[in-house]
Amino acid sequence: MAIVNGNYAKLQDSYLFTDIAKRVAAFTAAHPEKKIIKMGIGDVTLPLAPCVVDAMKKAVEELGHKETFRGYGPEQGYEFLHEAIQKYYARHGVKLDTKDIFISDGAKSDCGNITDLFEDTNVVLVPNPVYPVYADTNVMRGRKILYMNGTPQNHFLPMPDDSVKADIIYLCSPNNPTGAVYTREQLEKWVAYARKNDAIILYDAAYEAFITDPSIPRSIFAIPGARECAIEFCSFSKTAGFTGTRCGYTVVPQELVRRTPDGKELHLNTMWLRRQTTKFNGVNYFVQRGAEAAMSVLGEKQCGDMLDYYRENARIMMRTFDKKGYTYFGGVHSPYVWMQCPKGMKSWDYFDYLLNKLAIVGTPGSGFGSMGEGYLRLTAFGSREGTIEAMKRIEKDSL
Ligand SMILES: *Cc1c(COP(=O)(O)O)cnc(C)c1O
């Protein structure tokens, strides 16, 4: 008799985006004349950078000729992309070995798949609110999860608590959904905590390229000692518009070593290589060529222009919220503005208010964890016109 994984029954049903879609559909049916502005889903809207498209076209052409055709590539990605990522990190002051870098089809898969490397007895520490993938993938393994609260007092940046013993720590900076970003000093405290407890930090840097202040680290590996206690996930999705193209990478330093239950030392880099070569067969050649172009100096400039466009949208939003006297977080090193719902409204109440009164769609903060209650996430990934129009509606509104 086949017995299924009972942990799936423990997952909380996530109706967030289906619920939003249902409410939006009902509103559209009732008011077909109203122009809805969508600022909810965290997806990019600008097209791929020209140098990325050129590189992918050229690579597809290569695949069409006998002399340059390629079949299976290395599961962990092509060396040309490892080198491009290595150079990109070096430009931002972080030294990596190409063998630390593993290419994948995106950060979500890697965030979920990394759970394979750890025993299910590990205690996992997860911020609240945050990207739901960390908690859900560990619930699927039946692991004990502890939450650390993001609050306005800690600016949605929870810090280590020595009375809490965790083995695996998820950090997401710049954070989805709050847009909050850890400073160097704060990350140093996390690295110190991890080293003291022999814990491992799983650092999601999917939004690193949005950071504009050079004193804020774009990688956990900018912190001395992190190579012995951290793994970093990154993605081309939000920073180079690859949400549909699919490509990401994970950095597992070769120094990272921990013990098995019977005391044998294993290198996590070797384990991850084994995991990927066993369960994964690599990313499309032409997508990796596109990603290589995105990591080049020209690609960084062209993608940077896209990020500037989104940053300006965020500024437009923040200006309006300043005028209204609203409390908000993020919006500076992040495409997300995390606003406190006016007049103490609950997330879904304010969501409904914005939709029904102003035809604006946000994402209820409560969908990212209990501490998100009373907040709404708005994204800067929309069009300039849409953002301006939405802010005009909010500005004119009485709330
Ligand atoms: C969007 C997002 C990802 C997913 O990235 P993909 O590479 O598209 O899978 C990972 N982490 C966070 C925090 C995100 O917001």
Summarize, please.
This protein has helices spanning 16-30, 50-63, 79-91, 107-113, 133-139, 184-197, 237-240, 268-279, 285-295, 297-324, 347-358, 384-396; strands spanning 37-38, 101-104, 123-128, 144-149, 168-172, 200-204, 230-235, 248-251, 257-259, 265-267, 328-330, 336-340, 360-361, 363-364, 375-379. It is an alpha/beta fold.
Mind explaining what this structure looks like?
There is one protein chain. With 399 residues, the chain is of the alpha/beta class. The protein folds into 2 domains: 13-42 and 299-394, Alpha-Beta Complex (Aspartate Aminotransferase, domain 1), CATH 3.90.1150.10; 48-294, Type I PLP-dependent aspartate aminotransferase-like (Major domain) (Aspartate Aminotransferase, domain 2), CATH 3.40.640. 38% of the residues lie in helices and 15% in strands. The chain contains 12 helices and 15 strands. It has helices at residues 16-30, 50-63, 79-91, 107-113, 133-139, 184-197, 237-240, 268-279, 285-295, 297-324, 347-358, 384-396, and strands at 37-38, 101-104, 123-128, 144-149, 168-172, 200-204, 230-235, 248-251, 257-259, 265-267, 328-330, 336-340, 360-361, 363-364, 375-379. It has a 7-stranded mixed beta sheet with strand order 2-8-7-6-5-3-4, with helices on both faces. The chain has a 4-stranded antiparallel beta sheet with strand order 11-12-15-14. A two-stranded parallel sheet has the order 1-13. Strand 3 (123-128), helix 5 (133-139) and strand 4 (144-149) form a beta-alpha-beta unit. The longest helix has 28 residues, at 297-324. It is globular, with a radius of gyration of 22 Å. The N and C termini lie far apart (59 Å). The relative contact order is 0.17. The mean pLDDT is 97. Bound molecules: pyridoxal-5'-phosphate (PLP). GO terms for molecular function: L,L-diaminopimelate aminotransferase activity; pyridoxal phosphate binding. Its cofactor is pyridoxal 5'-phosphate. Pathway: Amino-acid biosynthesis; L-lysine biosynthesis via DAP pathway; LL-2,6-diaminopimelate from (S)-tetrahydrodipicolinate (aminotransferase route): step 1/1. Residues 35-394 form the Aminotransferase class I/classII large domain. Its EC number is 2.6.1.83.
